Amino acid sequence: MNISGNTVFIPGATSGIGLALALALQARGNTVIIGGRRTELLERIAAGNPGIDTVQIDTTDAASIDAAAKQVLARHPRLNVLVTMAGIMRVEDWHRPESFLASAEAVVTTNVLGPIRLIAAFVEHLQAQPDATIVTVSSGLAFAPLRATPSYNASKAAIHMLSESIRLQLADTSVQVVELEPPSVRTALLPGQETSEFAMPLEEFVAEVVSLLESRPDAKEIQVERVKFLRYGEARGDYDQVVAALNAADPHGK
């Protein structure tokens, strides 16, 4: 993926990594469209960041995704980058179904079905572009589990394998598939995470991501240094130690 000159759609970009990445990409010469559920928040972001376009979208709703895709493509026919950013993370207790089942269904709908539906809405358009990219967003927890968030871990492992698979299928097209693998980052994804000493500062994370995109335009996976402890534990042979260290540091663990 080239770092500039793109038209980029990032649903789930009204806060956290999505918004910070959107602003960083706009600053590097890209046309950026952000999506979110709350109209008033989208309007406030657009007013405070001239040049950013917005579209209302609920990535848990297939009809909303289809409607938003039509709006984005009508206004931005040169769209060539889709970032499937939207996601939720829930603390769950799997000892009893009433304490995890509804949460797990919501996580899978948002984190797995959402990206699948987004890709379905844009994949034919992207293949018609001379140079296009689908950016999926997994997590370091796709590779080492956090005890408190089973469904989130599983959803991100699914996104990793989805990315690996569609990269193979789309190898005969102009579409590159890039997997972004964040570590814990200081966002509101979980209560307390914005101030967690174990989480990477948001500004540092996005700056390193943009640097990696610039220096490695053909990269299949975007990994900041802090995620490699989780990403490569199994390959290094210290997976059990990685899992133990991750969960010992977890403020949500029990």
From TrEMBL:
SUPFAM superfamilies: NAD(P)-binding Rossmann-fold domains. Keywords: Oxidoreductase. Gene3D superfamilies: NAD(P)-binding Rossmann-like Domain (3.40.50.720). Signal peptide: none annotated. It comes from the Bacteria. One of its GO terms (molecular function) is oxidoreductase activity. Belongs to the short-chain dehydrogenases/reductases (SDR) family. PANTHER family: NADPH-DEPENDENT 1-ACYLDIHYDROXYACETONE PHOSPHATE REDUCTASE. This is Short-subunit dehydrogenase involved in D-alanine esterification of teichoic acids. It comes from Nonomuraea thailandensis.
